[in-house]
Design brief:
Number of helices: 12
Radius of gyration: 29 Å
Distance between the termini: 50 Å
Organism: Roseococcus suduntuyensis
Shape: flat
Oligomer: single chain
Keywords: Cytochrome c-type biogenesis, Membrane, Transmembrane, Transmembrane helix
CATH class of the largest domain: Mainly Alpha
InterPro entries: Cyt_c_biogenesis_CcmI, TPR-like_helical_dom_sf
Strand content: under 5%
Protein name: Cytochrome c-type biogenesis protein CcmH
Amino acid sequence: MTWVALAIVAALILAPLFYAFLRPANPRGRGEADRALFEAQLAELELQRDEGRLDEVAFRAATVEVQRRLLAAPAPEAFRAPPRPSALVLAALVLVPVAGVGAYIWRGTPEMPSATLEIRQAMGAQEDELLNRLRERLATQDPNTEIGRQGFILLGNAERNRGRWTEAAAAWERAQAIRFDVGLAGDLAEVEIERGNTEAARRWIERGLSLEPGDPRLRFLAGLSEARAGRNEVARATWTALLAEAPANAPWRDIVEQRLRALP
């Protein structure tokens, strides 16, 4: 039954927590941890030298630096083991998933089957009907008003969510003709890149950057459009400049770095 499977999954998820709480403590002081780290670094340097990734001069220089840090590391100190978890904590680890499974059995429907093809098709037909009503409403209103603009944005969002890139781009272009928005220019650029129309994407990116030159999303998309067009060196230069000017804690740094490493 479904609820039995849920209970087994919950037990498997909690097993590492029980192990972490119940296993014997093996504490380390700061000095011991530092020494273990530096010794591992020395072993890694030797491995890189043996594999030919590090020449002898660089190996000696790096080894001397690690050895210097190893000598400067504090001596191992006495370390008190952390207290054992209380019975209340261990009981909570058991009672919380048990209560969750029980509540699901009581209030949920674990045996409910998934939606049939007929149901999904009916839902799709309803969504199509709503989109048709929205199109009809936009056709009867002045398209140059802010209400009309918001309607075209809504229509574009719906079309994009259904994977209709061409229809989404057409709706958003109508909205941009009423009033240009930098964020929507980024959305249009993404859709054009997905369609393989990198030149159209570049036009939207350049127009957006002319208003907000430092916009990181548009600068990332500029590199992406160049990469999709086969201009890898231009994409590399674009992303390298973006990373050079980005804050160290920018949440999107990892994404840009991954894209940069993936360039041929």
